[in-house]
Write a structure and sequence with these properties.
heterodimer; A: about 220 residues; mainly alpha; about 80% helix; about 0% strand; B: about 170 residues; alpha/beta; 7-stranded mixed sheet; about 30% helix
Amino acid sequence: MDMREKAIEFTKEKLKQSLTPDLVIIQYAHLSDSLNKTILILIKKLKDLLQIEFPELLDKIKDEKKLIEIISEKSLEEIKQTYVKETVGKQNLEILKQLSLKIQSIKELKNQADKYIENLLTKHYPLLTKIAGSYIASRLLMQASSAENLAKMPSSKIQILGAEKAFFQSQQNQTRTPRFGVIASHSSISRLPEQQKAREARNLASAISKAIKQDYFR
Amino acid sequence: MKISKLTTLRKKTELPIKEDSKILYLGASHGVTVDLLSNLVPKGHIFAIEISPLTIQNLLFLADKKKNISPIIADANKPETYKNLITKVDIIYQDIAQKNQIEILFKNLQFLKSDGFIILMLKLKAISSTLPDEKIFQKAKEELSKKLKIENTFIIETHKDHVAFILKN
C-alpha cells in the first residue's frame, strides 16, 4: 500500500525531529538519579555488614569515601596493622571487598553520565547552564518535561518547580506557599541565612527564566 | 502477564470484525493490541495513532513484520494533522486515558463509514478522580448517546476502572 509507506516515512521523520537535546538530557538525568539512589543503598548495606565483620573500623573511619577505598584496596592483615589491632567481628571481608569495588565502579559511571549531561547542556543551553549550574538545569528540564515548557513558564512557576506537593497543600490549607523548589540547592541560596533565602530565590528564578528564553528562542 | 482489554472483551461477546475490515486505532502505545487486531484482519488495514515518540518505536518495529499496520505519530486531538494519511474506516478502536476521551472520539467520527462501529475503552477515573464510578458512567453514557447509538456496555474486570462501549453510527 502506497499510503502505508507514506505514513511510515512521516512517522520516522517526526521521530527524528522529536529526539531533541532536552529529551536526551532528561533521560540521562533520570539515569544519574537512579544510579545515585543505588549508591546510597549499597553504602548503607556496606555499613550494616561491616558492623558484623569489623565494627572497630567503622568506628575509627567516619569518611565513607575513605572507608570504601580502604576495604577495596587493603587486605585484612594490612588493615589490622595500620588501623585496628583487635576486633570482636567475624573478620570475613571477601564479599565486602567485591561490594566496595562495585560501589566505586557505579560512582565512576555516574560521573560519566553527569559529564555527558554537562556537555550537552553547555552546547545547547549555555546561558541556563552558566546561571543555574548543570545539576539544577537538568533537574529543571526534568520537572518541566521539555525545554519548550520551561521556556514558556513564568519565573514564579520556575521558582517553585519541584515543590508541587507543598504548593498544592498550601493552596488547600490556606497557608503560605513554598519559597523554592529544585533551585534551593543553588549555591547563591543555600549560603544565605533563612530570612533572605526567599528574596534570592525570586531573583534567581527570574534570571533563569530569562536565560532559558534566550537559549530556546535563539 | 497482563491480558489485553480486547481479549477480555472478546471472551464476553462476539465482535463483528471481518477479515478485510479497516481499523482506526487511537492510542496505540507499544502495539500489543494492535498486533492482536492485525491477526484478526489479515486482508484489512490498521491505522495506529500514537502521540509519544518513545513508545511508537516499538510500533515501527512491529510494522516491519506486519504489512497491514501503518503507524502514525500524531495527536488524536488534532485529526487534521493526519487527515491525508488515512482513509475511511469500518471500525474505530479507542483506548486513550484522557479527560476528554469522548470529545476525542467525536472529533474522529469523520473517518468512520456510515455502517461502521466503534469500540471505546473508557477509563472512568481519567474523567474524574473524585466522583463515584457509577455517576461518571451515567454521565458518559448520556454524552455518548447524543451523537451515537449505544449497542452494549461491558465492564472490563482485568483492568481497573475500565468500561467497554460498543457504539454504532
